Amino acid sequence: xxxxxxxxxxxxxxxxxxxxxxxxxxxxxxxxxxxxxxxxxxxxxxxxxxxxxxxxxxxxxxxxxxxxxxxxxxxxxxxxxxxxxxxxxxxxxxxxxxxxxxxxxxxxxx
Length: 110
Hints:
Layout: H1 3-20, E1 24-31, E2 36-42, E3 46-54, H2 69-86, E4 91-99, E5 105-109
Parallel strand pairs: 3-4
Antiparallel strand pairs: 1-2, 2-3, 4-5
């Protein structure tokens, strides 16, 4: 499996996890010329923007270690862009999902 296929599998695993947790997937790999969001999902009252980070090993840190202040700023910008474009006025949450080489998922709110 190449890097792209592994990334897609990790994102699919997280999407499946979210659906099992009661989310409806609104978009995967939503993007425009300025920004990108891995997964947009929602429940009745809240839309979630989820960044997926896959790591085959923890030698260089966990996937969640890669949610840097710069990445968080990019995530917020992308979420705000999506919210305006889709006229969403209810609750919003940013999440990060870490996927390891066994495709175990750790999901945190940011």
